[in-house]
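User: Earlier you gave me the apo prediction for this protein. Now I'd like the version with S-adenosylmethionine bound, so I can compare the two side by side. Same sequence as before, with the ligand SMILES added.
Assistant: Got it. Here's the input I'm using:
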Amino acid sequence: MLRFAQENGHARSTLFAPTVSELNSQGSVHRWYNYLEEFPYQLIEDKIKAYQLPPQALVVEPFAGSGTTLVSANFFGCNAVGFDANPLMTFISQVKTTWQIDLKQYKEIVYQISQEFIAQIAEVDNLSLGQGFLDYMPKKELNQWLSPGLQKEVFLLKTIIDKVENQTIRHTLRLALAKACFDGSYVALCPGTTFYPFREKEEFWDLFAQKVMQIHDDLSQVQQHNHYGYSKLINDTCLNAKAYLEPNSVDFIITSPPYPNDLEYTRQTRLELYLLDFVKNMNDVQQIKRQMVKGSTKLIFKESNSAEFIKGFAEVVKVSDHVYEQTKDKNWGFDYPRMVREYFGDMYICMREFYDLLKPDAHFLLVVGDQTVKGVYIPVCDLLIQMAESLGYRDCRKELFRMRRSTGHDIPLPEEIVILKK
Ligand SMILES: C[S@@+](CC[C@H](N)C(=O)[O-])C[C@H]1O[C@@H](n2cnc3c(N)ncnc32)[C@H](O)[C@@H]1O
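And here is the structure of the complex with S-adenosylmethionine:
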């Protein structure tokens, strides 16, 4: 079991001072909590430089996820605003962009936590742990994610962390707890959300200790520079961005939005949503799902009506009809044509919402991939460009980012950067 020394001399990172570019490209801070769908840190740096964004420029990330855009934007002196419909992701991004932590106090608190955890873990079966995620998370799901022993260890550590008074440090430790819990769980996110109950996993405490030390080491390097930008996170749908930002105020938008690939983001993050008290039941989960761009059939509700906005786009209607033809005689897949229409309707609203918020001549970059849905090729990038042009964006084009293979088909799928200018 990894143990913490109360005072362990100089952090190794004080021996040399990496540049901000080195911090970014080596994944400092980014690696605290990674997301399967995140995009490369280097890309954000390249674009901030290519578009010559000055210090204090306002960068917006409509689909913040694990915060790649925000962390890189802050590294290079830009301020950032990030939206995410999932409260876990705004929490993660907020922690990952909060670098003013007293590291001496952090180490002392971590030492006390480790002492308390070690003292109590042997007795964990006899402890009365009170109410919490173990009671709220549906039993079947909980047991799919975590072994019975791990459930108790995680709950004990959470109870100890929740008593930490310094809010910034408590939040940072809650991120470390969530990541260690996820990494110690039975889940693998590829393909889909799959559970492997017999897979050997590293000890939970060691995973937590490594994460806590990684955060400490990264921060001690990051704190050697002091000209960073700041981030603000908003837990709401970005389709409602005008409620939070002034017209003509945004210098740059770069994002990797959901794709119409049937990925349901609350499923991937279900464990952490319950663990960190963001949800207490399936109703709470449903509320989050209702706010999401409908790139999955599981995100469509009776009242969903974004499809209204794509009626004038013949190409979108055509691909949706094509998907219908592929699925109409089957007893599966009947929701997919609707998903395609709802998805493009949501992306239309998103691009319309941000048009007014961008400064004149400012750019909106979307890293997005073409997709196949039930065997039908969906030229996502071209369809987004058509919609963007109708909204008044100029010089719309795409730049190849990389090629992927679709699962189940042998069709190479381009992933492109769609570039729009106000
Ligand atoms: C592809 S991921 C973004 C990954 C991100 N670029 C990163 O580096 O981690 C898409 C994110 O969009 C969020 N999302 C989906 N619909 C949304 C909406 N309507 N408004 C804001 N966020 C949304 C999901 O919760 C998910 O975190």
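For your comparison, keep in mind: The CA atoms of residues 44 and 72 lie 6 Å apart.
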